Amino acid sequence: MEKTNVFGVVLAGGIGSRMGNVEKPKQFMEVGKKPIIIHTIEKFVVQPQFERIIVLSPKAWLNYTKDVIRKYIREKDKIDVIEGGATRNDTIMNAISHIEKQYGLDEETVIVTHDSVRPFVTHRILEENIHYAREMGACDTVIPATDTIVASADHEIISDIPDRSQMYQGQTPQSFKAWKLRQVFEALTEEEKKILTDACKILVLKGEKVHLVQGEVSNIKITYPHDLRVAEAILGGEKTC
After folding, report:
1. Homologous superfamily (CATH) for 6-237
2. Its pTM surpasses 0.85
3. 34 φ, ψ to 5°?
4. CA-to-CA distance for 142 and 125, rounded, in angstroms?
């Protein structure tokens, strides 16, 4: 069987406003004496199934991103740094367009999209994302919800308490056959695009199946100052997975 092209897509387009008044986006803040984004990219470059790693950065930080990668990553020739979009999904579409122009795109091309500020993704999670994206067309990394989920339509009064056994917390990677993802995204109305919260919802809105991949509690997203301390603690006891 012909080899499927698989691309890692590291989403570093945000500026990290919830981290507080910091001088640079959170993906460039240091944990364990290296920028967070470097820990993340390191997990991708050692995955042999990735043909290329596409890193998407805010326009103002493109050169900085390239400089940081040159400084820390030995396999830098495997990495492309390009500009992100206005939204998360626009950023993913930029990655797909780049892959199409530079390397070619067909119905079997797989992208594994991941937050640059989730530096503790494991080899297993990446492997399973690649497998299920190939087999099912799309997958999402999740962990079971441990707390009761309370819904409130008006943000004041409880409107629903769904069955926790059916609830999951979304993580990343989210992985897809890129051709199909773009096809479905371009078919959405502007109203549908406005309610998108992540890439998987593109497919869910149109009734497409998205397989679940078991995540890890340690696969945290570094969003708030407290998360930096948690990340340092994880790094202190991290083992290769």
Report:
1. Spore Coat Polysaccharide Biosynthesis Protein SpsA; Chain A (3.90.550.10)
2. yes
3. -140, 150
4. 10
Structure tokens at 234: 């994880």
Q: Residues annotated in the binding site for CTP, as ranges?
A: 11-14, 85-91, 116
pLDDT in tens, the chain (241 residues): 345 699 999 999 766 555 555 678 899 999 999 999 999 999 999 999 999 999 999 999 999 999 999 999 998 899 999 999 999 999 999 999 999 999 999 999 999 999 999 999 999 999 999 999 999 999 999 999 999 999 999 999 999 999 999 999 999 999 999 999 999 999 999 989 888 888 999 999 999 999 999 999 999 999 888 898 899 898 876 654 4
Q: Which residues neighbour 186 within 8 Å (Cβ) at sequence distance 6 or greater?
A: none
Return the domain boundaries, the chain.
6-237
Binding site, residues?
A: 11-14, 85-91, 116
